[in-house]
Amino acid sequence: MKSLSLLILLALLLPVHAHSGMRTVDPIVGTNGEPRDTVPVPVATVEAFIHALAEAWNRQQLEPFLDPDFPNRERVIAGFPGHAVPGTRLRILSVGPVQTVEQTRRGNALVSKVIARVRAQLEIPESSGSIRREPTTQELIIRVERWVPE
């Protein structure tokens, strides 16, 4: 039951898409409808964030990673410790593809919306001493804010 609760929590934290391929996204366009150049968020930046997110999950310290508008944010933060089987770890297996799908500029900040496909697995300790592995593939939507000169 606890592992089911853990999987449900993971499903709340990592949006799932039923199809197997990366979704098709229309190109970013300017106000006149013409294609606009974007500055792709470096894959290394996204990978580093996702690995940091997994480590925060393993330490049960997700609060800094959840957007203030995240649905049921306080419930997820308050209820998290009771859902995990002690010793359960989230391991990132791979990240990619990564796609910058939206970008706006706010003063000196370039705000990008990025979609990243993540293969991960939960490693759940069993009473027998073995570890049960639960693989998952998720698409994460990440907001990246970077300072850029005007």
List keywords for this structure.
150 residues, alpha+beta, 3-stranded antiparallel beta sheet
Contiguous runs where pLDDT drops below 50 for at least 5 residues: 1-20
Helix vs. strand class? alpha+beta
N/C terminus separation:
53 Å
Rg over alpha carbons: 17 Å
What is the share of helical residues? 25-40%
**Major beta-sheet overview:** 3 strands, antiparallel
DSSP strand count:
3
Mean pLDDT: 79
What string, H for helix and E for strand, traces the elements in order?
HHHEEE
Q: Which descriptor suits the 3D outline?
A: elongated
Structure annotation, total helices:
3
Q: Name the strands of the widest sheet in spatial order.
A: 1-2-3
Strand content: 25-35%
Written overview of the protein:
The protein is of the alpha+beta class. Helix content is 27%, strand content 35%. The chain contains three helices and three strands, in the order αααβββ. It has helices spanning 2-13, 43-59, 73-83, and strands spanning 89-106, 109-125, 131-147. Strands 1-2-3 form a three-stranded antiparallel β-sheet. Strand 2 and strand 3 (131-147) form a beta hairpin. The longest helix is centred in the middle third of the chain and has 17 residues, at 43-59. Mean pLDDT is 79; it is low at 1-20.
